């Protein structure tokens, strides 16, 4: 079920109408959240509900026995193998089989592993990467002694399956949400208003910005147009940077808003990443729940930066490449991750961003970081790595435009791109200039802004598209 | 101001802004139906016809069944889809749209692209066929109720200078026709994209053979099958002949040998706004010519 669909509107109204009734008592609340979340997920394909249930049963059981057992590590390994095994089967079978076929091919052996993969593994269950990581955080934190297992399975499943963040994040850690779910939380009008604001702004980002940019980006990256040239591809890359940002950040905002309306707090998942003045800073602002997950469960356990610069860079590469693979079983995602790892390594080795810490310098740094991010996004969106090479080549070497007619053909998308940039700039200025923030708060500007945004998302919505991050 | 007041004012203010927006923005040409409803109706609405027109975007922009219905005592529908390939699944669908009684006529617009491997993937048609039942129901019966909320294009807020203005004007009809024209009028604008489309993608001979066998089967089943090459510009025709491997004379001979009737529009000059698709006035002209030809063929 998509947040920007009529089905979800009906679902949401029904859920929040019944919420006060079921929120009175723990078991009722947990049961209600779990049931409604299963309906939400099952709307896409009920057959894959068993994956969430299987993942949940394994982690609930392992989590329960870890503190009591002498073989804690064994239970943790069981949880890791089961979760990552399911993820591998449903997400990476074809990719690894193709890799093996190619590898054997180099050795002169002909294998047909990819052709013999069972059909059901070719369907990627929506949100599998999100709920798997969420579930894993539960057992790992119990193993590390940072979390106590919950006794009631309904309590655990209400955390694991909670619909706002189930299919596209943010990845909420068990220690952050289980406690909130343990008690009945009273929701103030202020929380409700803030929840509504987040939902409306999130829908705007998705339906107005991201969906209206889709036509231009799909036409460009799927080569449905005849246009080429440096200017064209930079515009396409910048447009994609904003499309994926607004698509995913929009989803996260809606999820946070829905949770807030229920009385729960989800941490911020995006913090205006395109104003980052270093790539490291970018990763503190982009998909924060995933980057901190990889930091806490992969990078730091590997050794982090404690074992010197060189090893730190090796761990950085491992973490980034795993993050690339998390996004999808495709070389394009690995390339995207490798570019980030490469630029992060340079940044760490040279510390070039520190040289630009003066008023104009920080803007220059932000621009340079944004350019690096855009180059990496090209591979993320390209149909193949070779295709990505072609586009990046056109971006970094001056290729004259085949025609400037694309400015007219994609005029609507370009207006929207302009709107997105202006909005980001305004928010950035508001955060940087305290007086503006004060005026914004005191003037109750949101009283006008929220209904205006609501009207804009109804009348300037683009053609409905699935959220990009559903595929991960 | 207290948040509860803000929540209470949200909907009234949104309604007020809605009417302000409707008042301030220019009225766009009123479409008879939205594009989504149009495609859902064409693909999923259970209705059958005497005459069925099949083919790609040149058909759905170039043939107006209402013009034909005005001249002939039969019902007609346009079943054109974007980048369509004349493959088995689509031809089965075309057949299902025919009335069981009456004249039973299938008119195939056989363009070079519709016989290429790329077109035979039929992404547009397949995508619509695979729509979920709930989505079909929504598009057919629910969404049109909300036409008041039809979205505006961002350019309505920030119109482009006249010198740069480029726009596709489209009106969708239940008959399956899209009345269209484009500004600026440039009968050569589609040539580069067609050149690209035919690169490494010539027509598939097995697909031609399969089509001819189907024509034969239809004729044996009592269906009148009419074929023609839909007119475009001379430059487009030359490009298609050169790059696609399409030989009209051979196709015509095969088509007739398998029992079909070929209509020859060779040399007919009609106004195309991009070199591929017909301006709506030309589309109505072609439709009138088609109905004259069908009047001769049909009882």
Structure description:
The complex is a heterodimer of chains A (472) and B (299). By secondary structure, chain A is mainly alpha-helical. Chain A is built from 20 helices and no strands. In chain A, helix 10 packs across helix 16 (385-396). The mean pLDDT of chain A is 89. Chain B has 299 residues and is α/β, with parallel strands linked by helices. Chain B has helices at 3-24, 35-44, 57-62, 65-71, 88-96, 117-120, 123-129, 133-142, 191-198, 205-220, 234-244, 248-257, 280-297; strands at residues 51-54, 76-78, 105-109, 167-172, 178-183, 224-228, 261-263. In chain B, helix 4 crosses helix 13 (280-297) and helix 9 runs parallel beside helix 11. The termini of chain B are far apart. Chains A and B meet through helix 9, helix 17, helix 18 and helix 20 of A and helix 1, helix 8 and helix 9 of B.
Q: What share of residues are in beta strands of chain B? A: 5-15%
Rg over CA atoms of chain A: 23 Å
Oligomerization state of this entry?
A: heterodimer
% residues in beta strands of chain A: under 5%
Secondary structure tally: strands of chain A: 0
Strand arrangement in the largest pleated sheet of chain B: 2-1-3-6-7
Helix content of chain B: 40-55%
Shape of chain B: globular
Number of helices in the DSSP assignment of chain A: 20
Name the helix and strand elements of chain B from N-terminus to C-terminus, one letter apiece.
HHEHHEHEHHHEEHHEHHEH
Poorly predicted residue ranges of chain A: none
The interface involving the most residues is between: A-B, 35 and 33 residues
Q: Uncertain spans of chain B, ≥5 residues at pLDDT below 50?
A: none
Main beta sheet strand tally, sense and closure of chain A: none
What's the number of extended β-strand segments of chain B?
7
Share of helical residues of chain A: over 70%
